[in-house]
Amino acid sequence: MSIIGWLQISLLFIAVLIVIKPLGLYMARVFSGERNVFSPVLGPVERGLYLAAGVDPKKEQGWLAYTMSMLAFSLAGFVSLYAILRLQAHLPMNPQGFSGMPSDLAFNTAVSFVTNTNWQNYGGETTLSHFSQMAGLTVHNFVSAATGIAMALAVTRAFARSNASTVGNFWVDLTRSTLYVLLPIAVVMALAMVWTGLPQTFHADLSATTLEGAKQTISLGPVASQEAIKQLGTNGGGFFNVNAAHPFENPTAFSNYLNIFAMLSISAALVYTFGQMVGNRRQGWAFIAVTAILLISGVAVVYWAEAHGNPILTALGLDAAQGNMEGKEVRFGQAMTALYAAVTTGLSDGGVNGMHGSLTGLGGLVPMFLMQLGEVLPGGVGSGLYGMVVFAILAVFVAGLMVGRTPELLGKKIESREMKYAMFAVLILPVTILGFAAVSAMLPFAVASIGTAGPHGLSEILYAFTSAAGNNGSAFGGLTGNTPWYNTTLGFAMLLGRFAYAVPVMAIAGSIAVKTRVPASKGTFPTDTPLFVGLLVGIILILGGLQFFPALALGPIVEHLSMLAGQTF
């Protein structure tokens, strides 16, 4: 660990902190239907889209209609993307002549991008045509992120309104999220990434001669445009197989900064938007404080673990002062690799600039644990916000039991119905992750896919299902996931992690919206104070993390202790 490393990390968080309020206010204006800087240009486009789709933007939906619209849109997206991937050989813009994806891999990939997971059991530059990358994956990078934002807006309106039977219009929220938020910022970010060295071309590849005289084929394509929305939408799916560790996807230390900044900016600003729209900015800042405490703690642990090094490698003669550089790019170093690893798993992004499987036992534990907390730090765009609201509901219920007051959040009474829905949502992740991981650890053909025996092998399986169910998409490495078993089970884990979680959340929104919003009184437990921040952190750690402790104890914790003892498996 070094002062320079901590300075790099601090400057990144300061930059994000600076944009939270202005970006959050801008999004609040957009989602409230107010005129904004892009209205003269994009307003006619928005109205044209409504006209073409037969949508009345003034007609709102109840929570059930809103949810059914979201599910129908996601189903249509899955079918269209699955068709593109299967029929790739017969579609245009395929200069490499790639064949269509096998059915199980196409299922996994289509589910992955529709659910904003972007788990990749394939190598992008050796598997997908430019058409599949652009018309298939990049399009879903936009709309899957916009879908998450839309659901977060429905939850936000439920708390902002009183005695309401509607929570907005899904099609309007989807359109505005894409047109006014994701698209303009992605254009600027893509241009910035081209400036840093990312390719943006329709050429398939380039032949080069190495210093040794060997011939090398360098893959090219429309990388910058996909990379921009990959990070802004917390998608994480890379154009290249090694994701942001590839020099054409993340060439410099500055592009690495842009990647992390893009991941954090919209997700963090949406939390402020929540506070603005419900009329309590302090509540937004309280949620941001919770994410900051847990995320910065995660960064610190990973950075310490990697800078501390691996005693086993030290015993082999490596310089202990260099820490653990295995699986890391020298142009990023330990500090920015640690920051990237914690942010991408705390945010449900899933992009990586180093091998998570090469982290030390403790360093690898943290990214997995951050995903198991529920992807709320601040999570995926939209999904992290409504995940945080679910934990807040649980926190006020616990607070009410402790002090003998009726649970209340932002003027809305929290009753048994909301608690049942919240608990159902919270239990989805452990049931899915631990269930699939346990079965996979018992089946010989599933165990045959792991790359390393012992606790690290268990971590590979556990990390895969954690990443899938958490809609993260990052991989631990070592696990051969492109098999019928893992393509299918990981696909179902992604579906459960996205939609089995989202449906009860939308039910909570419908239940909250119809309640009368009452002003705070002396008997109200305040939810925008440091005391509540501490309580919420505790609830997230207990409900989001401790249920995974036995599994973690058998995997990364055992690996860490064995590393300290100088043992290998």
TrEMBL record:
Subcellular localization, per the record?
Cell membrane
Q: Say yes or no: keyword Cytoplasm present.
A: no
Q: Where are the transmembrane segments?
A: 6-28, 63-85, 139-159, 179-198, 257-274, 286-305, 385-403, 424-447, 490-510, 531-554
Keyword Iron present in the record's keywords: the answer is: no
Q: How does it sit in the membrane?
A: Multi-pass membrane protein
- Mind listing the UniProt keywords for this protein, alphabetically? Cell membrane, Ion transport, Membrane, Potassium, Potassium transport, Transmembrane, Transmembrane helix, Transport
Q: How does it assemble?
A: The system is composed of three essential subunits: KdpA, KdpB and KdpC.
Which NCBIfam families would you find in this protein's record? kdpA
Q: What does this protein do?
A: Part of the high-affinity ATP-driven potassium transport (or Kdp) system, which catalyzes the hydrolysis of ATP coupled with the electrogenic transport of potassium into the cytoplasm. This subunit binds the extracellular potassium ions and delivers the ions to the membrane domain of KdpB through an intramembrane tunnel.
Q: Which family does it belong to?
A: Belongs to the KdpA family.
Q: What is this protein called?
A: Potassium-transporting ATPase potassium-binding subunit
| Origin species | Ensifer adhaerens
